[in-house]
Structure formats: structure tokens, C-alpha cells
Amino acid sequence: MYQKIILDTFLGSEFDxxxxxxGNPRFKASTNSNTxxxxxxxxxxxxKVLKMADIAIHHGGQNTTVQCIENEVPAIxxxxxxxxxxxxxxxxxxxxCALNPSIYNFNKEFLLKMCTKIIKDNTFKQNLKIYSAxxxxxxxxxxxxxxxxxx
Length: 151
What we know:
By secondary structure, this protein is mostly helical. It has a domain at 45-149: Glycogen Phosphorylase B (Rossmann fold), CATH 3.40.50.2000. The protein contains eight helices and five strands. It has helices spanning 2-10, 25-28, 46-49, 62-70, 83-94, 108-120, 122-137, 140-149; strands spanning 17-20, 38-41, 56-58, 75-77, 98-99. Strands 3-4-5 form a three-stranded parallel sheet, sandwiched between helices. A two-stranded parallel sheet has the order 1-2. Strand 1, helix 2 (25-28) and strand 2 form a beta-alpha-beta unit. Helix 1 packs across helix 6. The longest helix is centred in the C-terminal third of the chain and has 16 residues, at 122-137. The model has no long low-confidence stretch (mean pLDDT 88).
């Protein structure tokens, strides 16, 4: 269903789209829809890809949520019923770095409208700049490891 909606929404649009399922084995069998500007891939180096992205649509996992904020990439998050993902989506939305719509909004009209709006909305860009700086000021993985090892 998601693959069909993504193709219906973005194929032939102004957007270049990369879709990944993070190694999900069921997704690998369905990657034959690489056409035009929409590319289905099993895995991508998200830390590198996000640095080049204008917007991310994702499920609210911890890594992607933080990477989006750190790289100042606005997001539309569809977390499903997983508490961690829902919590991340709610918090990112509360600070103005992402949208957290209902799964019922995963449709062509909503996605096109929101992608266009978010990319043009300076509020998202300003909030992302603030929170990206906050994340970067905390010292990253090296500081976390140092804290744990020297606790």
C-alpha cells in the first residue's frame, strides 16, 4: 500500500525520492519499482543521504528523528503504534521540527501539499537551526561514551 501511494504521489513530480525500508526482508522482494524520480532501495547510508535531503518522511525511529534535526531536515513522521516512535514524533512536532499527522493522512493530496509547504516554511528552518545547534553542543557520541566510561 505504501509503495503504491508513494509512486502515485511522487512519480513524475518535482521531487526526487529515495524510499528505504531499513533492511526489512519483505521490502527487498518488492524493489522493482525504480522508475524516473522515485527509487526504492533496501538500505541507504542515512547519515549521508539526509545531509542532501530537503525533507524526510519516516516512521519516527530514534536515529532518523535525531539525524533529521541535527542535519536541519524537516520531517513528516508517521509513527504507527510504537511508543518510542510516537514519543519521538510528538516531541519533534512540539518543537516545530516535524509534523506528526495521522496515518490516515498518508495519501497523495496530503503528502504533496505538506512537502511543498514544509520546504517553503521558514518556521521549520528556524526551529531546526536552533535544535540542531543544541544537539551538536552536547558533544555527540564521544562525550556520551566518555560519560559512561568515567561514571
